[in-house]
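pinned: reference chain
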Amino acid sequence: MTDLTTIRPLAATDRAAWESLWRGYLAFYETTLPDEQIELTWRRLHDPLVPLHGLAAVRDERMLGIVHFLYHASAWTRGPYCYLQDLFTAPEARGQGVGRALILGVYDAAAAAGADRVHWLTQEHNTAARVLYDQVATASGFMQYRKRLVDP
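pinned: its structure tokens
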């Protein structure tokens, strides 16, 4: 990463670059979403009534990565928790500090919002990402369980 990488909130004019990275993220996890869901996600990222937020990593006017995060109340702390939901760096920008910069950007936003903690999930076999995550956070030791309530 160079000093010219900027972490900033997603802007309305970022739609095409964001969508390209978002689709890359979905492909990385070998999944797809209908176009209607992608449109809804973009709208949610810009709706002040929805607690979903997004940041972009930009260098030389090119978006190299995105992160989505949201806040939720906790029974364990006074302040909210911040859930880092999605993090993706363009393949050609990996290993250049973009992912780390995005995580630190979430830390800054969460601290400014009064959050007590930032947390996230990753797949056990995502070893490249886990090398970074082990440097910037502590693994909780918890496992995630899921039950789908609505058909996809």
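why pinned: Residues 6-136 form a domain with the Aminopeptidase fold (CATH 3.40.630.30). The mean pLDDT is 94.
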